Amino acid sequence: MRIALTPARLGAAALVAVPLIATGLAGQAQAATSVTQDRLTPTSMAANTATKAGLTVHSSACFTAKTLGVGVRDAVGRNLDFPGNASNVQICPSGVNFTSAARTLPAGTYTQFGFWQDYSGGWHNLPSQKLTVGSSV
User: Fold this and answer.
1) Model pTM greater than 0.90?
2) 130, pLDDT greater than 60
3) At residue 81, what are phi and psi to the nearest 5 degrees?
4) Which secondary structure element, helix H or strand E, spans residue 27, and what is its range?
5) Are 91 and 58 in contact (CB under 8 A)?
6) For residue 100, what are the β-bridge partners?
7) Is the pLDDT reported for residue 8 higher than 80?
């Protein structure tokens, strides 16, 4: 049996194909955009003292990230991220500044990094650095 392509069927096919094509192209455009971490603070803090993190990033072209934040991992890899991630953040070549909510950490050495999430659900970690938390004074 052969199915004839009537205008109605062609229209339905176009309604399905166009969003699929557009989604694929949007993913390619976003994948080509690079994000650079310009600043990540703090590099040290006092144990059990509430401290905020700061992150400055810029991109090769403007786009909107679903999430932007600062991650922290202890020596065994536990997630101790700074709270208060930003949502729907436009990142452009001119840059954007982010400040987290405050958190406390016990004395120790941690790994911290900026991160962003795309609208496809992919997470992108930026370069990491050491965060030293000293004894409280």
Assistant:
1) no
2) yes
3) -55, 150
4) helix 7-32
5) yes
6) none
7) no
Q: What's the pLDDT at 56?
A: 99
The whole-angstrom separation of Cα 104 and Cα 133 is 9
Q: Is the dihedral of CA 12, 13, 15, 16 positive or negative?
A: positive
Residue 97's pLDDT is 98
Query: Which CATH number belongs to the domain containing residue 47 in this structure?
Result: 2.70.50.60
Q: Is the CB of residue 72 less than 8 Å from the CB of residue 110?
A: yes
19 and 55 within one domain: no
Residues in the chain: 137
Please say if the pLDDT value at position 60 is more than 70. Answer: yes
**Residue 60 is part of which domain span?**
34-134
Residue type at 68? L
Q: b/e string for 71-105 if b means 16 or more Cβ within 10 A?
A: bbbbeeeeebbbeebbeebebeeeebebebeebeb
Mean pLDDT of 93-108: 98
Domain count across the chain: 2
* Tokens 């991220």 found at: 81
Q: What angle do CA 36, 73, 50 make, to 5 degrees?
A: 90
